[in-house]
Amino acid sequence: MNPHFRRTGRNRRPLSGVLVAATLLAGGATATTGAASAAPAITPAAPKASTLGAQAAQSGRYFGTAVAAGKLSNGVYAGILDREFNSVTAENEMKWDATERSRGSFTFGPADQIVNRALGRGQRVRGHTLVWHSQLPGWVSGIGDAGTLRSVMRNHITTLMSRYRGKIHSWDVVNEAFADGGSGQLRSSVFRNVLGTGFVEEAFRAARSADPSAKLCYNDYSIENWSDAKTQGVYRLVRDFKARGVPIDCVGFQAHFGTGGPPGSFQTTLANFAALGVDVQITELDIAQAPAAAYTNSVRACMNVARCTGITVWGIRDSDSWRVGQNPLLFDNNGNKKAAYRAALTAMGGTP
Ligand code: XIL
To answer: Does the pTM of the predicted model rise above 0.90?
Structure first.
């Protein structure tokens, strides 16, 4: 399934035969369009959905969550996962320290479990993540020779992307490469320090070769506020890639927010990146104390940008969150829906 295909479900108003024919010719018709033409006078608008994934799908988007392989056997956890979400991201299982603990020796059990379970249930999968300074084994961070690191990085990208070729809708090819603060430059890491700033481009080129069917994303945090130097640094990188034909398809905004939620410019930031010709996605959303208004503002920012193709929250229940004690998610420790859940669903046009 193409995650970027915009369904026309919200527009199932009566269509004239000419319009139906034109839609069919354009290749944009669905089976429901045909049904609408058969009974135009009584076809209602698409119903408001009552789950996150179903409502996101009304506008061709996905609503996903991070999942941990070790929790899939928990009934409450799996029940919410399968009821509410139509995309998953492995919280840790595809990271370098989980997949290639020693050079050339790959482990895929937990990642396979997440991928196979999701695809078997019609959920899509984000790939997270290939090149990142964190959760990186010491044998990689200790490499000092450019030729060796280049070949190790390429092999890691190629091996992971080949294993899941055709199964991942978007891959976070490079994660968190930019420095915090005012520099707007790449952070210090073994990749930048040994390969130079061109490592980002090298990674994206290797990724395109490995799985041409996956959208290739750059993913980072604290790039939601338009005027921030870090945001501007990423923007310049993406603009340069697009100008020079370096493959890049999407930018992931992690969206780990404090209690105030997104900065007022978040939608502007999403729109400005989208205008470069890439999709944008909210990839790791969580908000300290999960104020409903902060979730509303986050979801609205995405819904208001046509090329914002989906939202992922970084865990299911508060007890699943990496932000211990901050209760930043949509479900409480018992799996009950919080006010933030209702805010997110309503902001997409759904009904709790
Ligand atoms: C976090 C996981 O949630 C934790 O379980 C793990 O201990 C550390 O990493 N940015 C990212 C994610 O890109 O991979 C991180 O996930 C959170 C910050």
So the answer is: no
Is the peptide bond between 231 and the residue preceding it cis, with omega within 30 degrees of 0? Answer: no
Mind listing the pLDDT tens digit for each residue in 51-68?
Answer: 999 999 999 999 999 999
Helix (H) or strand (E) holding 79: helix 75-84
Give distance in angstroms: CA of 75 to centre of ligand 1.
Answer: 23
**3 state DSSP class of 321:** coil
What is the spatial distance between Cα 216 and Cα 308, in angstroms, rounded to a whole number? 15
Residues 6+ apart with CB under 8 A from 127: 89, 94, 160, 161, 164, 168, 170, 171, 172, 214
Helix 266-274 and helix 229-244, axial crossing angle in degrees, nearest 10: 10
Residues 254-301 pLDDT 10s: 999 999 999 999 999 999 999 999 999 999 999 999 999 999 999 999
What is the CA(183)–ligand 1 centre distance, in A? Answer: 24
Residue 282 C-alpha to ligand 1 middle, in angstroms? 15
Cα 143 to chain centroid, rounded: 30
> Ligand 1 site: residues with CB under 6 angstroms?
91-92, 175, 254, 284, 322
Q: Are strands 170-175 and 215-220 parallel, antiparallel or unpaired?
A: parallel
65 in Cβ contact with 312 (< 8 Å): yes
Instruction: Give whole-number Cα distances, 273 to 123, 230, 239, in Å.
Output: 27, 13, 9
DSSP string across 256-287: EE-TT-S-TTHHHHHHHHHTTT-EEEEEEEEE
Residues catalogued as catalytic: 176, 284
